[in-house]
Design a protein that fits this description.
Distance between the termini: 44 Å
Number of strands: 8
CATH class: Mainly Beta
Number of helices: 1
Strand content: over 45%
Shape: globular
Order of helices and strands: HEEEEEEEE
CATH superfamily: Quinohemoprotein amine dehydrogenase alpha subunit, domain 2
Largest sheet: 8 strands, antiparallel, barrel
Amino acid sequence: MSKTVVCLIALLALIFPGSAFSLNGNELSGSWMVTWADDQKNHNEMSLTYADGSLSGTYINDSQDSCPVSGALAEANGHLILHIKCPKWGIEMDGTASAGGKTAKGTYWAYGDTSGPFTMTKHESQ
């Protein structure tokens, strides 16, 4: 009988995968390293703050400009959208945060014609 219960629970988890995921948006507040196109040499610092369902912060671009960040998070499934506005260009990011809020992965669009994968990694001290 216990095998039946375990199988039923596993089946329900597969049918409703998002229902087990829950992220407190405050877990995304802190300092992050953003890696572009899976290239460890192509990365930038970003800080985020979460309040009332919205994300805001600062992104430091390659020219060391401080660029404002805005966005939103769906806590139920970890889906996040970020908008970075730098002086001469912008970046749109669409991804998913991990359940523990330590990483996020997705796709970015920049310069109007460039896209690729991104990975965000929260600094350990956070």
